[in-house]
Amino acid sequence: MSSVADELPEDLQPDLVDPEDYIFPNNNRRRIPGVIYVACAAALVATYVVRGEGVLVNRGLLFGAAILAVVGLYSIVAGRDLAVDEGQALVESSKSVGFPIGHASAQMGWRGLLSRPTWRILLYSNENPPAKRGLVLVDGVDGSIVDSFVEDNPEDWSEFEET
């Protein structure tokens, strides 16, 4: 009697990345387009100053330059350096919840008008099944705890208990 196994073809096998090799993209990359926008705004203003009013060169260039300058300056200011990685954020969040951590996941988000990078850490206690769960917001710039919420785990795990 032969055994039939269900498996993915070789070309569909996931290529798992070692967490040590993965680097989360830094938020400061926003500065690059910001500098480009400001440079384009300066070029538009210079074109208007050199060419003066005409058919193709008019005050519309100044309006476009103003928009580009505002968006560019915002991108430069909002491009804060991400100094805390997800591992450091997990360590900081474990200090604030008051229980040993089992499973956890990290997600990058941004908060505030200037898009300050913030780690959202969802974590469970290390019991089986977990008795507590929490959500901790960790600042990605200085590693401070922005907010945290901890509760008893309301999920019903009774169907998975060993008998």
Describe this structure in words.
With 163 residues, this protein is of the alpha+beta class. The protein has 2 domains: 27-78; 86-160, Nuclear Transport Factor 2, Chain: A (Roll). It is built from 3 helices and 4 strands, in the order αααββββ. It has helices spanning 31-51, 59-78, 86-97; strands spanning 101-111, 116-125, 132-139, 145-152. It has a 4-stranded antiparallel β-sheet with strand order 1-2-3-4, covered by helices on one side. Strand 2 and strand 3 form a beta hairpin. Helix 1 runs antiparallel to helix 2. The radius of gyration is 25 Å and the shape is elongated. The model has no long low-confidence stretch (mean pLDDT 84).
